[in-house]
Predict the 3D structure of the following.
Amino acid sequence: MDLTTDDLVEMFRKLSVRMATERDHLCRLDGFAGDGDHGIAMEQGMQAAHLAVTGTEGSLQDLFNAAAKGFLNAVGASSGPLYATALLRAGKAAGPRQTMPRDDLRQVIAAMRDGIVHRGKAEPGMKTMLDAWHPAAEAALAGASPDAIVTAAQEGADATRDMVAAMGRSERLGERSLGHADPGAVSAVMIVEEICGTMRAEA
Amino acid sequence: MDLTTDDLVEMFRKLSVRMATERDHLCRLDGFAGDGDHGIAMEQGMQAAHLAVTGTEGSLQDLFNAAAKGFLNAVGASSGPLYATALLRAGKAAGPRQTMPRDDLRQVIAAMRDGIVHRGKAEPGMKTMLDAWHPAAEAALAGASPDAIVTAAQEGADATRDMVAAMGRSERLGERSLGHADPGAVSAVMIVEEICGTMRAEA
Amino acid sequence: MTAPTQKLINDGNAAVDEMLAGILAAHPEHLWRPEHAPRAVVARQGPRKGKVALVIGGGSGHEPTFLGFVGKGLADAAAIGNVFASPPPQPAVDAALAANGGAGVLFMYGNYAGDVMNFDMASEMLEMEGVEARTVLTTDDVASHPDRAKRRGVAGNVFIFKAAGAAADRMLPLDEVERIARHANARTFTMGVALSSCSLPQTRRPSFDLPAGEMEIGMGIHGEAGVRRGPLRPADEVVDEIMDLLLAEMAAPPGARVALLVNSLGATPLMELYIMNARIVQRLQQARLSVHRTLVGPYCTSLDMAGASITLMHLDDELAGLLDHPCDCAMFRQG
Amino acid sequence: MTAPTQKLINDGNAAVDEMLAGILAAHPEHLWRPEHAPRAVVARQGPRKGKVALVIGGGSGHEPTFLGFVGKGLADAAAIGNVFASPPPQPAVDAALAANGGAGVLFMYGNYAGDVMNFDMASEMLEMEGVEARTVLTTDDVASHPDRAKRRGVAGNVFIFKAAGAAADRMLPLDEVERIARHANARTFTMGVALSSCSLPQTRRPSFDLPAGEMEIGMGIHGEAGVRRGPLRPADEVVDEIMDLLLAEMAAPPGARVALLVNSLGATPLMELYIMNARIVQRLQQARLSVHRTLVGPYCTSLDMAGASITLMHLDDELAGLLDHPCDCAMFRQG
Ligand SMILES: Nc1ncnc2c1ncn2[C@@H]1O[C@H](COP(=O)(O)OP(=O)(O)O)[C@@H](O)[C@H]1O
Ligand SMILES: Nc1ncnc2c1ncn2[C@@H]1O[C@H](COP(=O)(O)OP(=O)(O)O)[C@@H](O)[C@H]1O
Ligand SMILES: [Mg+2]
Ligand SMILES: [Mg+2]
Ligand SMILES: [Mg+2]
Ligand SMILES: [Mg+2]
């Protein structure tokens, strides 16, 4: 069955719950190299995004745009502009439709990756969320199964353990950032999981 | 053998060493009800008193006066004026003599008590150093043995455990001052001990 | 044996003198120190012929109290004691003689046994020099005693000294400055809450223990025990408990004006003080009291203690005018 | 599960908005907030026709940075973010539009990935409104990167903002104010030392762990890792390690003048800062550098972190004059 705006609202509800659950874990991760607040940003951002979409009538694109605005204004920080841009691009990919084939969520994942690159100017290997989003997007475009897309994201996030941060708050930590996964990459995997869950939910 | 100015210098050296040793213990006691610094005051005060008497030529009274000034200027606080006045009175009691019978240290103990009363206007039972000095002075005047004088001071200090502070920094603590001895009374016992040790030291 | 408390100091016994060296180096345009008076600081501007000399002082560890309030329009000089220890008489005498303008000296300091004994000795010494010295004790700590005369002086010093300093700066005679100082003290009420113990530079151990998760309402600025110990509550509840007591003590009629100080005891940052202030002003509005002036920050600290205090001064036109009077001190400027 | 860190707050998520309410209530004569712009604060005095609008901002938790420096002679407005989080673009736009005097807007803030992305979006939005906005990033944290352009902005903000704010207050055109801002930043060098972790209002857990007895040299004001971790040393040794690096970076010739800031990261009291200053001035004298102005206190904090930072600004006549320019902010006044 196609993806409806109600399905999209439900997806943001799941994302909001997920981030609330993982808040302290993500903060701890951010504490190793960054400023310890990533979990708070993602919790508040997804909560605001969910609130925004529930209050919005319109197309899938309208909902993604509302989510982008809600996320950005609630959060700021690095995650705010990055996910706001990602969600705007996701909206463009979904387009002014009331429903779309769930398989089009592959384009949504790729569009989010593109938005993050556009806003953050990072490249894979810099120990950022992109290290999860990029392999996920490539897998999605290559027609991989939802599970395989999640695995790609997860492997990308795991790989950040061996990277030295070269972007954002946690830049130039040398050893201390080594050995710990990038919090933004870890939260990215969770988002990819929820999107792929939605993609999977045929019938 | 009579008490000489050298004996007096030696007594202040012992007092200085003693207070340095007991510093942290006295600070901890002061922490229960007061501001936690009594050990520091007594250490610095007796150190300064010892330094002052070593640098002073003259009579026993001159040395006590120098000790008073040294103690006061190094310390301030409550202990400073109290012991400065006590030591000035001790000097009066010793008088402008180069030596005196060791037994006259009884008058010195009593004079110090009087000085503390004069300066502090406290009465026995108010949970102050006076609760050690007063019984010590009474015992000294009554001709008690050096050991008995120390015992009197010790019992007086112990009794402060069951008193509620009514003077100084630690006033109006209710329960919290109960159960702990007054730091000034405890350090007073140490001073009385050193004086009585000197009194005892018939060679 | 736990690790010593985390402090950026050298030898604990040298802390006060090193601090003074750092203060004099940082504020040469505000402060100077008389020769042979290592523990007295005097205002560059302020002391002058025919002016009452306001001399404050007390133990160290409360910075910017006391010496941060020495300057034009506020105190003329301060006597500096060891940490938590009244200065001996000599620095008080040195400070008074350096600031003396021939119109008399007013000593102002918190009501503590040690300070009273030392400053009284200083007054006697000044008398021998033919200098008239009077004393006004501050007693604003509501938690410290039911009897106002026996209370300790704490953060309210800032407002009380400020009023007296403004009066002296207006060249009022000693009688008037003393009257105003007593009046200012009588209308000032403070209550604090401690969230952690302080530790002395010499011991670097907590002076008392206050377990994590606990708070102590009414604790003094040297760690003197307060009125109630219990689990740490949200800021609004803590503020309410303190404000209930302060408002009852102050007993100001609706429509009255107050000066407000939200003070850090040392380790508590501005964010928390302002969060407290958001609730304080609600309580003042409910009581129909208006705030003429608000100070927020570390004004009277207790070394590295975490916690805060709230001070209310019940204003009349005279006190309001005196608080508005400009002052220029190393650590406090206004107007 | 250890007890939450000791804070006088309510709901951690409400901390910033409650703090803002407390600040606006305490400083109505200095600050106001535009309607529908809950996270923008604007100076009562200062913004005016024909004047470049200096708009600063960043995450909360650094008070008095940023909003304490909004006032006549310094910044015209500030955008307020969540704790340790850049504000989103909207508050920056709101602040800029409220302060806009038709002579252009200069955004100044610390160089952090998040702040750059959000303020750049704000600049784009202002462009659409036909308002020219330029940006100068502060990069004074010597420890944060070998390459100056990639360094973070920390306590040196105070001097850098001050210089730019004075230039704008003198009604200089946008080109000049921008040039001065870059010049001021290029000559400002900061390095900090942390003695304890801060904790966020939402988590109330230490954001990182720094065991008692340890210190971290060069730690950032959000707990970003520094250059060296080791046993806590006496203040003089810590100062020497920091001054060695700062003096080498600054490379000022003998006889040069500097402005000096000895800053508390939050929990470290004045006594310790002044003890540090006593050693700092010795080092400056040895380097034959003279101190034109010294600031000591909490100017750029990291919530409840214990520790301090030292900032040196290498002055020329232009910068010295701009630092001497009067300013009147809620939390910083001069002249
Ligand atoms: N330029 C960038 N491109 C992509 N991701 C970035 C960039 N800068 C930061 N990030 C991501 O943002 C995460 C941190 O986000 P968060 O903690 O919410 O914001 P902040 O760093 O402002 O505290 C990092 O873990 C990293 O994955
Ligand atoms: N008025 C007084 N008369 C006698 N002893 C006093 C008086 N006030 C205080 N004391 C003594 O002083 C002791 C505290 O001394 P100390 O801690 O050195 O000074 P401070 O109280 O100023 O910190 C108390 O334990 C008490 O014994
Ligand atoms: Mg972060
Ligand atoms: Mg004491
Ligand atoms: Mg004391
Ligand atoms: Mg952040």
